[in-house]
Design brief:
This protein is of the alpha+beta class. About 40% of the residues lie in helices and about 20% in strands. It has seven helices and eight strands; from the N terminus they run ααββββααβαβαββα. It has helices at about 5-25, 35-40, 85-100, 105, 125-130, 145-155, 195-205; strands spanning about 40-50, 55-60, 65, 75-80, 110-115, 140, 175-180, 185-190. The chain has an eight-stranded mixed β-sheet with strand order 1-8-7-4-5-6-2-3, with helices on both faces. Helix 3 crosses helix 7 (about 195-205). The chain starts with a helix and ends with a helix.
């Protein structure tokens, strides 16, 4: 190989390296900024937290537990179908968020409403309620002790109501729990939700794993 040929090869390799680095910077998402996340109401843990095994019932009447959180990203919202304000608003915002995501990210995300009112929220009631949003949302309800176990593990606060009163309300927190494909609790989103901002940040959070 002549000196000229070697020079040409070295030059081509150098140009290819520069192009590769430039393309990688364009394709690779920028590092997540904690201040930016906090401004959007997103808080991620330094290390994922384990979720205990639980036994609930899905809106389809099937067993629902920790294994249902595996294989995709999950957003969990603890609410109830008879909620007059916060719950329908939050569910509508979650619908807006999921519809704003790129298709590949939307396909890797499951939104699940966990009812804190199992007295009234039967699987049939939940299924009817979720269909209203027409967004492929899942639902889970069941034994109060199992609900409390899951809520405690996810730092969700709610107060069990006096079910003897008609049209009772249930006090509950409105944050959204983020669970990764290994069914680990990795962070949460504080209300009020900002669908436009979250639709930009969530794909980057999902790409970190």
């Amino acid at each position: 190989m002549t000196g000229v040929q070697k020079t040409v090869l070295v030059t081509v390799a150098a140009v290819a390296l520069v192009i590769g680095v430039t393309v990688n910077k364009i394709i690779r998402p920028a590092p997540l900024n904690q201040a930016q996340l906090a401004q959007a109401g997103v808080f991620l843990f330094d290390a994922p937290r384990q979720i205990p095994d639980i036994q609930l019932t899905s809106a389809e009447g099937q067993d629902w537990g920790k294994t249902d959180l595996q294989g995709q990203w999950n957003l969990l919202f603890f609410g109830y179908t008879f909620c007059p304000d916060i719950c329908p608003t939050t569910m509508a915002e979650l619908r807006q968020l999921t519809h704003a995501l790129p298709e590949k990210d939307r396909e890797q995300l499951q939104v699940t409403m966990v009812s804190v009112d199992p007295n009234r929220d039967t699987p049939e009631q939940m299924s009817s309620y979720l269909q209203f949003f027409d967004a492929g949302f899942a639902g889970a309800t069941g034994d109060p002790a199992q609900l409390a176990k899951l809520a405690q593990a996810l730092s969700i606060a709610y107060i069990e109501p006096d079910t003897s009163e008609a049209n009772y309300l249930v006090d509950h927190s409105g944050q959204i729990v983020i669970v990764d494909p290994q069914s680990r609790y990795v962070g949460f989103i504080r209300p009020p939700l900002r669908p436009a901002e979250l639709s930009q940040l969530l794909p980057r959070i999902m790409a970190r794993q």
